[in-house]
Predict the structure.
Amino acid sequence: MHHALIVDDDLDSAMTLRELVAGERFTVAVAHTLRDARRQIAMQQPDLVLLDLKLPDGSGMDLFADPQLIANSEIVLITGHASLDTSIEALRLGAADYLVKPIALRQLEGVLARFMKPSALKAEVETLNADLASRGRFGHLWGQSAPMLRVYEQISRVAGTAVTVFITGESGTGKEVVAQSVHDLSRRRQRPFLAVNCGAISPNLIESEIFGHEKGAFTGADRQHLGFFERANGGTLFLDEITEMPLELQVKLLRVLETGRFMRVGSTVSQEADVRIIAATNRPPYQAVAAGKLREDLLYRLNVFPIELPPLRERLSDVGLLAQHFLEGINEQEGRRRQLSPEALERLATYHWPGNVRELRNAVQRAYVMAEGELIDDQWLPRGGPAPVAPAPAAAPAAAATPELRPPTSVPQIEVVTLPIGTSMAQAERALIEATLRHYKHQKERTAAVLGISLKTLYNRLKEYAADGETLP
């Protein structure tokens, strides 16, 4: 049997929890203070700790100050104050989940059913890392480049928690595969993973599809319909292209994320939402907010743990590995062995892949079909060198070499960068970065997101500009 420790200064709440947890085949100990909790942990390491945040001698968060003390325990927060910021901070520190008082029996049962020792999750991550070193594969993902190693590290850290994940990246970079990987490495893996493309559902039907509806809720609703939240109960709901969700529905989604409850269309009774949300978009998030496609408050609620996927052109060293992976799948499906020639692999590694991994998969499929023998050459593969760069817009001749900043007639509050003919790419890049940084009042994270570059890249550019001896106004 597993051992649980309940840390709660409310005697009635602690005793009730003790009875409920003991009924789930746990041995149970109870502590009412932080001091008592530390003593209980020293006597017997608990597999599960149900930890109240408000205690007489401090905050339950104080236990996280000693990682070795709880390294082998799954921590579930219990709070009667529903502090979202505190709960998110604890989840970032390693808590597996949190429950709000009064605790619903169904939610507690879900937490206990998903229980898994941290050591078991660590062992799985070690297995995945060993497979990565030997084959270049991390679960469903392939690649050994530095940008992908960073993504794998992020997946490993966040999968075992209940934190909301927000995945960004260009179309075709594999956002759904990352979401699936997070789910498969999480405590919810035995429950459904449901992927929903918000842009592929009619705006008139999307609320009904996500939350469900009651019979007679609207014309044509001849029966009760279970929405995605109910169908994914206990599991993970992946909301792809979240910026395509109507704004009025984004308000309702935000409320679900904050309260953990939702209502079917046409119903007056709310239901518990025991679902982990992973969202994704191919738009730069703050750009989507500025364009009115994404509510800013929803962005902040979704963006608890961001994962940015690199485009394929930024990890060309992975192209050969990915191509071989796709080819092996086609060979198995078609029952015929073909291989890529050295010329084909070279062509693949020098193309800029505007369609990212999805385009690479399609290119390998097409080349396989068109190949006449067992060797696939480069005849039917896409051609092209470095990614094309859009030319600078033409402007009236200017005497000064410094780009002119002037407001357009249609959007008076937004600066426009106008560049004279002959401006170098380095000058154009600098002008755009500096103008964007000024526009967003030197908020570097927002500037990087709008420009579609990493925060590290932005810092490096600003450091270079500062070294030139010039400072931004």
